[in-house]
Design a protein that fits this description.
CATH topology: Nucleotidyltransferase, domain 5
Helix content: 40-55%
Shape: globular
Structural class: alpha/beta
Number of domains: 1
Length: about 140
């Protein structure tokens, strides 16, 4: 019998310079703790916060296009308190770029129809997503030189 799924997603974004060359990374795990998918991608120049939001957007776009429904809950683990508090509805979003990304995320959440939880952890507890960000930034710097 197919039950609804739960996912845990570790997501991170970063920029070298703020703004500067930026990238995002995310790793998706299923309810058994098995890795479902991972992605790291350079994204041109952006701020750290835009990169963090972009990681959430990319993970949700992947889920919308690739997962079997239904999904009951999705927990995002990020090392950005700003992004987790804004996506949880606790802090206002004053930056227009972040507000646009916020609305994109909320639209994707509605398509999935699950319960969403956003949690902030210290960077040391988000090493896999952080590694994907840095690998994408390093690869982009090599390609760009």
């Amino acid at each position: 019998m197919e039950n609804s799924k739960t996912f845990m997603i570790y997501a991170d974004g970063g920029a070298r310079g703020n703004p500067g060359p930026a990238a995002y990374g995310f790793v998706i795990y299923d309810e058994q703790g098995s890795k479902v998918y991972e992605e790291g991608s350079a994204m041109g120049n952006a701020t750290n916060n835009v990169a963090e939001y972009s990681a959430v957007v990319a993970a949700l776009k992947y889920l919308v296009s690739s997962i079997q429904y239904p999904v009951s809950s999705i927990k995002f683990i990020l090392d950005s308190k700003l992004v987790t508090e804004q996506l949880s509805g606790n802090w206002k979003i004053k930056n227009e770029n972040l507000r646009n990304l916020y609305f994109t995320i909320k639209e994707l959440e509605q398509k999935i129809g699950a319960k969403f939880i956003y949690s902030a952890v210290p960077r040391e507890q988000n090493q896999e997503a952080d590694r994907l960000v840095n690998a994408a930034l390093d690869a982009n710097l090599v390609e760009g030189s």
